[in-house]
Amino acid sequence: MFNIKNYLEKFSRRLYSSEEQKKKILEIIEKHTQIILSLEEMEIKNYIIHLKTSPAVLNKIFIYKSKILEDVTLQVKDLKIIDIK
What we know:
Layout: H1 4-33, E1 42-45, E2 48-51, H2 55-63, H3 65-75, E3 83-84
Parallel strand pairs: 2-3
Antiparallel strand pairs: 1-2
Helix pairs in contact: 1-3
């Protein structure tokens, strides 16, 4: 028989994992730029990190873009990121 609890747990684990990955990415950004962003300011679509913040903050992040992408590749498992926009 179909068990809805097991089915929903699968999605719950995926959502939790996604949130943890975003938190780790934000920690990496903070480490390199000393800029603290919230989860609401970041979205990941099609292997690209989209940041919703001011142009001044984006410029500072773009200065460290290669270092951030390198750290994300090394530290965040099961997630491939190719760009930051």
